[in-house]
Write a structure and sequence with these properties.
Length: 494
């Protein structure tokens, strides 16, 4: 019998007001994992009201004290890491090796954000007037609405929620309906470390009934979203209409450049991990290999061998290297791109179809897929497939490779494999993405560096790193005049 889960609003565990629920499924087995509230605008409104009621007291809590709570939270997450990782694998599908990393990022982010409690720095600067003090400081904005995707159901929410709370904001969180249990676990963890009621709230449900009302709610001051470009663009448009701050992370079409002087075996291993890790369901997944014509065939051969050798199955089982896609819609989407690629002239040299066999028939498994004869303008080279599919584009030079890499609607992550230091530095300068790797694949960002991208990937904000507070704080400039008289700035006193 599956468990019934609840929303977390104002420190209370409550069902949706409608009484309706939806079922959370294991994508590897089809088994029901639990019933979650199918919430609506009324539930969202209750959570926003609870968050607003808690805002003043939380803002007046000293930042170092807010940080201490996050330190306690990080330690608790670390203590429960295996339990949380297994829960994430059950509902999302990726293998335990990866969900352990997903949870570890939550630990790292808790400690990183907590440290900002004693580093919530502003700036002081000399005034142009005598006997006058000038400074600026960060202040919280208010209520932050957080909407996240299902592929990193623990890490990505923490990138947003922990900095927002540290800065003195309160939060209303809508987890993905594909991975709701991890949002529930996060609320339980906050409850256990004693976060005041209303400071963090979780409302389960879908985009139209919870996410969109969150975007439009007048009590939500900031919306932080991770998901598709189509939805993010719609949120940005509505945010502009309402004069609301919006922070967007919207995916990528990431390329690995492999030059003819590269370590081809190393590049092949990196491509295989970047393309097929998380079943290709990462915004930083390696989707294109832009390879010099002199080493093209050798690299295709090695990546194909690695793809065909991968063991597919339930991510909880020992030895499994790639899990399922998250749901039937994703399986249909990835399968559909095989027809698109074939129509455009791409050639399948590995995979290309739904995976079947012992332990696979009840889940949403797709074969690791390698495409060749891919041209830069093809849809399979321009659109985010979000599955275990990588396409090879042949080029003649570094300049051509960089041009091909930059010619997509997205700009999240890119990579170059080369032994030439001049080529490496040229790529570091000219690759138009928010993240650049040298002799490493397109995945593996670390929490203490800014995360985000250019063009259709985002709207200029960066998550984590030293930029983590930017989306969740305003700057306030303060002047203290102790001259005892009215001094007129911006007046020619000469």
């Amino acid at each position: 019998m599956s468990q019934n889960f609840l929303n977390y609003i104002g420190g209370q565990w409550i069902p949706a007001r409608s009484g309706r629920t939806f079922t959370n499924l294991n994508p590897a087995t089809g088994a029901a994992l639990g019933e979650f509230p199918e919430s609506g605008p009324d539930d969202l409104d209750a959570a926003v009201r609870a968050a607003r009621a808690a805002t003043r007291a939380w803002q007046l809590t000293p930042a170092p004290k807010r940080g201490e709570l996050l330190y306690r939270l990080g330690a608790l997450i670390a203590q429960k890491k295996e339990e949380l990782a297994r829960a994430a694998t059950r509902e999302m599908g990726k293998i335990l090796l990866e969900t352990r990393g997903d949870v570890q990022e939550g630990v790292d982010m808790a400690y990183l954000a907590a440290g900002e409690g004693r580093r919530l720095y502003g700036f002081t600067t000399p005034s142009e007037m005598p006997n006058k003090w000038a400074m600026s400081l960060r202040v919280p904005i208010g209520v932050v609405g957080v909407i996240t995707a299902w592929n990193f159901p623990f890490a990505v929410p923490t990138w947003k929620i922990f900095p927002a709370l540290l800065a003195g904001n309160t939060v209303v969180f809508k987890p993905s309906e594909e991975t709701p249990e991890m949002g529930w676990h996060l609320a339980k963890l906050f409850e256990e470390v004693g976060l005041p009621a209303g400071v963090f709230n979780v409302v389960h449900g879908n985009g139209p009934n919870v996410g969109w009302p969150m975007v439009q709610h007048p009590g939500v001051d900031v919306v932080s979203f991770t998901g598709s470009n189509a939805v993010g663009t719609k949120i940005a448009t509505e945010g502009a209409r309402l004069g609301k701050r919006v922070s967007l992370e919207m995916g990528g079409k990431n390329g690995v450049i492999v030059m003819d002087d590269a370590d081809i075996s190393l590049a092949a291993n990196a491509v295989a991990w970047g393309a097929f890790g998380t079943t290709g369901q990462r915004c930083t997944a390696t989707s294109r290999v832009i390879v010099h014509e002199r080493v093209h065939d050798e690299l295709v051969k090695l990546v194909t061998q690695r793809a065909q050798a991968l063991k597919l199955g339930d991510g909880l089982l020992e030895g499994v290297e790639m899990g399922p896609l998250v749901n039937a819609r994703q399986l249909e989407r990835v399968s559909g791109y095989m027809k698109v690629g074939a129509a455009e002239g791409a050639k399948v040299v590995a995979g290309g179809a739904r995976a079947s066999g012992e332990g696979l028939n009840s889940g949403f498994f797709f074969q690791p897929t390698v495409l060749t004869n891919v041209q830069p303008g093809m849809r399979v080279a321009q659109e985010e497939i979000f599955g275990p599919v990588v396409g090879f584009v042949k080029v003649k030079s570094l300049e051509e490779a960089i041009a091909v890499n930059n010619d997509t609607p997205f700009g999240l992550s890119s990579s170059i494999f080369t032994a030439n230091v001049n080529a490496a530095f040229t790529a570091m300068r000219d690759l138009a993405t928010g993240i650049v790797y040298v002799n490493h694949g397109t995945t593996g960002a670390e929490t203490h560096l800014p995360f985000g991208g250019t063009r259709g990937t985002g709207n200029g904000h960066r998550e984590a790193g030293h930029t983590m507070l930017d989306a969740f704080t305003e700057w306030k400039s303060v002047y203290v005049d102790f001259s005892g008289k009215v001094q007129r700035a911006q007046i020619d006193n000469n």
